[in-house]
Amino acid sequence: xxxxxxxxxxxxxxxxxxxxxxxxxxxxxxxxxxxxxxxxxxxxxxxxxxxxxxxxxxxxxxxxxxxxxxxxxxxxxxxxxxxxxxxxxxxxxxxxxxxxxxxxxxxxxxxxxxxxxxxxxxxxxxxxxxxxxxxxxxxxxxxxxxxxxxxxxxxxxxxxxxxxxxxxxxxxxxxxxxxxxxxxxxxxxxxxxxxxxxxxxxxxxxxxxxxxxxxxxxxxxxxxxxxxxxxxxxxxxxxxxxxxxxxxxxxxxxxxxxxxxxxxxxxxxxxxxx
Length: 274
Description:
seven-stranded mixed β-sheet; three-stranded antiparallel β-sheet
């Protein structure tokens, strides 16, 4: 092990022990990118010097934790996936009096609000019967998600993100470059804190969407997360994961692909998910 590797490990040990962020669950390359970004911004050279700064500077501690918690998301990310989710919602609405949806690792709320808007927008979906649970491990990002306020930036055009909707103006209020989702959209969504790695499974969901997490998580922790969300689904329920992910071999017997390329599956067997 090189000296820099040892310094990096000491830094991560400090973050986990003293700052309470479970670095051991995350991919080292992801963590290194976030740390290196903060090192550049704080004009520090080397992990050891940055660790000294962290120990003495509470504002830098907060900045690093914020950097670790950044999730890249948008409304209707990968629109072709959402068109298939629309089809799933129609099928569930035809089959059930109540439709329970879960946005797992919901980040800043755009994923569950996309679910809500889709339900409200589609005449074949009984939106009054839709209940959406949105969870994340980060309390601050949950607080921001509950506000439901987003901004256009040079790289983020909210109107463009909402293009899959017929009349997106019905679901957001615009004030210059700021957009706030309407109360009707918020009313279908409830936010709560949940740890997908250490927390208990939920139960009886008809659709679970978990797309914002796996690119950050260490490979050995992906299976426990997928087991948690799989156990949370009713038989006949649907699972949507990220387009770069695949179901582990141990879970494949419990699911059949609905849209394999889009990573949408239907749970057919509860006994295969232990």
